[in-house]
From TrEMBL:
This is Developmentally-regulated GTP-binding protein 2. Keywords: GTP-binding, Nucleotide-binding. Transmembrane segments: none annotated. It comes from Spodoptera exigua. GO terms for molecular function: GTP binding; GTPase activity. InterPro entries: Beta-grasp_dom_sf, DRG, G_OBG, GTP-bd, GTP-binding_2, GTP1-OBG_CS, P-loop_NTPase, Small_GTP-bd. The lineage of its organism: Eukaryota, Metazoa, Ecdysozoa, Arthropoda, Hexapoda. NCBIfam families: small_GTP. It holds the Pfam family TGS. Residues 240-315 form the TGS domain. The keyword GTP-binding applies. It comes from the Eukaryota. Residues 63-240 form the OBG-type G domain.
Amino acid sequence: MGILEKISEIEKEIARTQKNKATEYHLGLLKAKLAKYRSQLLEPSKKGGDKGEGFDVLKSGDARVALIGFPSVGKSTLLSTLTHTHSEAASYEFTTLTCIPGVIEYRGANIQLLDLPGIIEGAAQGKGRGRQVKKGGGLSFNSTCQLTKVDEKMVQMILHEYKIFNAEVLFREDATADDLIDVILANRVYLPCLYVYNKIDQISIQEVDRIARQPHTVVVSCNMKLNLDFLLETLWEYLSLIRVYTKKPGQPPDFEDGLILRKGVTIEHVCHAIHRTLAAALKYALVWGTSTKYSPQRVGLGHTVQDEDVVQLIKK
């Protein structure tokens, strides 16, 4: 039976099932299956191995970059070179056995760099460091309010339908089964990827040129400190970061402590970055920089700022 036929059968079963206390679990499971099959029409499902243990590292800085790759390709050396953080480096596999964090200071931003253990083919089946068995797992269920539309059993059934067996679930409002399904389906984040080829000092110029022409690619040599500046520039572009400087009335701009924000942010985001109540109290803003025709130019909350703009906020 194809996906369209399965969707049709589930829709018919939902339509003929009377909604009451005895059928609420069954209906919740049907809705979960229906949403899953509908999403598969847009994105084919991919089978994978059992999930291993993650690495809990406190997030810090303005952005985060993870180093993912094969063993002994120079990830630890790259971390040590860019962040001055020591990460054990050697010519044998699996020198790094856990996540090592470091911080890159670049253009006034602090970018957290994570050195992850090397991966190999077949890691999902337990080869190398691929499978790290957790001492405990399962579903943790909590709520900050009284739940009248779902309970722990229904939540467990819906999560199991999506092959989620280890999770911490927290309800902050009296949500429905449909709300839970929407959260599960929306919990997908596609991150930009940059391929960094190390040890270019060990191959020919022709091969370096061929690799460097590939999309989303930077070639470097950590040992010889080659092309690391271009790598940092490319990381900055991929992270879509900008610097916005603030200015108090009658004083020069503060170029020492700028705000690090994402491209596309507005004056309202600038206000929230300074204080969460500032946007409501703002009368207008004066902006110097490439985002305006004049310097300064009076703008409102919806004005989009650009890199190295200077902003002066005028309160009501």
